[in-house]
Predict the 3D structure of the following.
Amino acid sequence: MRLVKDALARRGMGIVTTLPGLLVLLIVIGLFLKSRAILAVEPLSRLLFSPVWRPLKGEFGLLPFIAGTVWVTVTALALAVPVSILAAIYLSEYAPRWVREAAKPVIDLLAGLPSVVYGVWGVIVVVPFVGDVLAPAFGVVSSGFSILAGGIVLAIMTFPTIIHVTLEVFSTVPRALRDASLSLGATQWETIRHVVLRKGAQGILAASVLGFSRAFGETMAVLMVVGNVPAVPRSLFDPGYPLPALIANNYGEMMSVPRYDAALMLASLVLMLIVLSFNVLARAILVRVERRAR
């Protein structure tokens, strides 16, 4: 009887474990089926690489939205990763215990704030800062609703994820390794650089991947500050229109336009495949790093 219970428990947990993978597959299949109406009449290459988005004329080029997604995400990660790692180094290696303990709840609070709050803050603070200060400093005219504003807001939203995971990674580095480095005459910064960062490289990469995953799919805060102009951005001060904002702004409206809903489903499918591809690639990099570490 006990063996039967163990077998049933093992099989039941195995089924539950496979459900997330099946769910991802079902979502991809569902989006593909809903996209067939436009894929049947337009070549995929034209849909992906055409910069023209005129739904009323039946032109559904997704290039401005794909480019907007990549611009905003890369900008956010370029801002977030270095700052988050330095913050984690300070909290882990330099900060007094009371500072570290006081900072953790604040980081958790930032992670729990609704994205619309970040969006409102971005409209009130970041957009004027970009339009009135940063753009004139670089000799550019900008309304402030731009890729850079979206990247700054998104970077702040990913800070808690990257900092929290990086802190956990640093905490797993054995104290004995730090003490051995210091006893050999290394400074604290040299110990951090050659021991802590090297030992935690895999975890830092994983933290960046988690932040990237969140940045790709973020919608509300970004659409409030990025400008939502369907054109390929040429600089950080140009407005953009990421894929999540396109879907959130338009789904449910203009469905009377032929193939409009299919175009939005194709945009969703493209976004999902980009996120999946990135996660698979990141996982492959992590596996390679782990093998080298052994």
